[in-house]
Amino acid sequence: MLAIHPKWTFPPIAFIILAVLGVLTNSAALLNLIQRHTLHTAFDITVMHLFTQNILASGIQYGLAGAAALYPGSWRLGKPACDLSLLNQLMLTAALANTHSLIALNRAWAILHPWSYRNYNTKRAAWFTCLGFWTYLLLLAFPYWLRDLLYFREARTLLVFLKVGTRTRRGRATGNYICMFNSKAQPRYGEYISIWVYSMPIAVVLVMFVLVAVKKPGGRKQPDNTHGPGRWANRVGVTGTSGSVSNSEPARWRAESSTSHWPVTPITFMTPAVILYPGLWRLAKKAWDLSLLNQIMLGAAIVNTHGLTALKRTWANRHPWSYRIYNTKRMA
């Protein structure tokens, strides 16, 4: 039976808590990176890009999910909210998946080819990557939402089934709607998006994680510091003697390279599970009937993992020396 009054059960409360936590933790992390602008790197631009997406996705996705869960069995928030929810489901979910693939590629590049990474991974390249990233998503995924909105959206009315005595008869239309894409109208387009916008980034994350995990540390050539600081010292901002650079910086880079992939481990295996495109979601519902609990638990894991990553970045920026000493594999 359709709910007439809001029901404050576990799902809406959990979604609202996740929305608040996601917005607060990611906003704090983003604010910290913005304030410490002197330490910005090309990778920090990608991380700030991710935090901005997390803020929007947490506020919109979990906020609307919590409001909708107050009225189980129908969509009571109106058509504009439904349009926004579906746009978020398509674009921001795709953006999160593809951003994780960019981060995975960035980390793999830094570990597998450190010298080219230091030479070519600039802030300008990072900004152009973000621009190309959104151009790619807008060209491939946004038309699906727009075509569905203009031509194919089904305003399917839910009918109340009233039980009268021992018989059940159909009542009048309630005016409530199901908020979902009309996937039958664009089947090939939907499959294309599922493969190129969702599945490919997940495959990239998994492959890059394996490559980074099996990469053995060591065996890297140290730079030639026999003729003074040179480019090495200029790149790391050192103006002293070359001996202090060669003794400290290579060891730090080796330590960071050997531990940098560990915080990405839980995100790597959670990313496929939170992408709610039709094919994977049907399999997830069959494998785990408690799909709502799945969303809540994985959402909480994503929020807390990103929060831990933000704390680690703050630690590295504010206390770099203790970070280099205590940031070990065992601690990760």
Automatic annotation (TrEMBL):
Residue stretches making up the G-protein coupled receptors family 1 profile domain: 25-212
Subcellular localization(s) per the UniProt record: Cell membrane
Principal localisation: membrane
PROSITE patterns: G_PROTEIN_RECEP_F1_2 (PS50262)
GO cellular component: dendrite; plasma membrane; synapse
Transmembrane segments: 12-34, 55-74, 86-105, 125-146, 193-214
MF annotations from Gene Ontology: G protein-coupled serotonin receptor activity; neurotransmitter receptor activity
Family matches, as InterPro entries: GPCR_Rhodpsn (IPR000276), GPCR_Rhodpsn_7TM (IPR017452)
Region (Disordered): 219-250
Gene Ontology biological-process annotations: chemical synaptic transmission; G protein-coupled receptor signaling pathway, coupled to cyclic nucleotide second messenger
Membrane topology: Multi-pass membrane protein
Keyword set, alphabetical order: Cell membrane, G-protein coupled receptor, Membrane, Receptor, Transducer, Transmembrane, Transmembrane helix
Residue ranges the record marks as coiled coil: none
Keyword Transmembrane helix found: yes
One Pfam family in the UniProt entry: 7tm_1
Keyword Membrane: yes
Biased composition (Low complexity): 236-246
Record-given protein name: G-protein coupled receptors family 1 profile domain-containing protein
The organism of origin for this protein: Hypsibius exemplaris
